[in-house]
Amino acid sequence: MDFEELMEMLEIETPSEFVYFEQFAELVECPEDISSDAVAQLVSESEPDALSELTETYFEDLLKFVPDDESELYTLLQTISTTLQSLADGMAGAEGDENARLYADELVKFRGWFLFDGRVRCTDQAEGVESDLSVMEALTNVRLQNLDGGDYTYDFEEALDYPLDEYVVSLTHLLEDDYGSGDDEDGEDYRDIED
């Protein structure tokens, strides 16, 4: 899917209209192949703060349905979210284009794992039937199971093989959440602290 097709799918005319949770969910969960170039063009022309917030909100929603005993999956999804949020935050700076490209590459990689490559073993306890699901299908089933009370178990072990790239991740949004404006008591700006 190229940029024009992506815009048509999202039902927007300009990237500045990419501001709603439903649009971000559609981008992530679309079963069609979306080129990294198309995503990069979309996010590079989007509002960085809005993109960071959409990313955070989407992953927060996703994390609600990670089973309680799957702490490694929970941590992995948090790490991916933090990386994407940091790259989105960095789009407002001098390296905006580079961060937009990195964000697009990371999101496309996440989509590939989430929709296709990450395999989860699901067992229907009542029927004794096992099946392989994608990570998205498994988390969707967990969500539905919470509503209808089905008796299924999930093994996410194989899905945990996710290639995390190493980035210098800015902690600006985390520090501001914890400490406010970004100035310490002496008035010094600590917003360029990096992990």
Structural summary, described in words:
The protein is mainly alpha-helical and 195 residues long. It has 2 domains: 3-117; 165-195, no CATH class. The chain contains 8 helices and 3 strands; from the N terminus they run H-H-H-H-H-H-E-E-H-E-H. It has helices at residues 3-10, 21-29, 36-44, 48-63, 71-90, 96-117, 135-148, 172-179; strands spanning 119-124, 129-134, 152-155. A 3-stranded antiparallel beta sheet has the order 2-1-3. It is elongated. The model is unreliable at 177-195 (pLDDT under 50).
How is this structure best summarized?
With 195 residues, the protein is mainly α. It has 2 domains: 115 residues; 31 residues, no CATH class. The protein has 8 helices and 3 strands; from the N terminus they run H-H-H-H-H-H-E-E-H-E-H.
List the helices and strands and how they pair.
Layout: H1 3-10, H2 21-29, H3 36-44, H4 48-63, H5 71-90, H6 96-117, E1 119-124, E2 129-134, H7 135-148, E3 152-155, H8 172-179
Antiparallel strand pairs: 1-2, 1-3
Helix pairs in contact: 1-3, 3-6, 4-5, 5-6
